[in-house]
Amino acid sequence: MTFREQLAKHRADPICHSCHQKIDPPGFALESFNAIGGWRTAHGDDGKLKVDSSGEIADGQTFGDIVGFKELLARRKPQFARCLTEKLLTFALGRELHALDRPHVDRILQALPEHRYRFGDLVQLLVASELFALP
Questions:
Q1: Angstrom distances, CA of residue 108 to CA of 20, 85, 114, 130
Q2: Of 9, 20, 39, 135, which has the fewest CB atoms closer than 10 Å, so is most exposed?
Q3: Tens-place pLDDT, residues 59-96
């Protein structure tokens, strides 16, 4: 079975469907990468199953591969930056973010354009934020 066929079977379970209907379509962009990040064009025991890394994002825009996916994300820098910032903070703080965290997130996001949205600068802004000084 292809990866898509396996996921379609998995999504048939109503409990799994609610999450996988959201994460699978954009996640297919990453199918060209194996478990350790190496590039692949085929998969399966015999390597005969062709990788299909096309998909779509939440608003229905489609992409053909990882390059197209990255282009879609690049057109949404503020939205992507907010999501990445929130996910990084959740991981770094070891807790979910709360409404009281929003002003801190907003300050970080206001500074990102002057840093041209560079990842290293985002990490520095996160670490320098007041959230790291709070108990």
A1: 31, 8, 11, 10
A2: 135
A3: 899 999 999 999 999 999 999 999 999 999 999 999 99
Do 38 and 78 touch, CB atoms closer than 8 A?
A: no
**∠ at Cα 103 (102, 108), nearest 5°?**
95
Range of the structural domain that residue 45 is part of: 3-74
Placement of tokens 């300050």 in the chain: 107
Same domain, residue pair 82 and 128? yes
Same domain, 58 and 94: no
Residue 109 has pLDDT above 80, yes or no: yes
> What's the token pair of residue 6?
């396996």
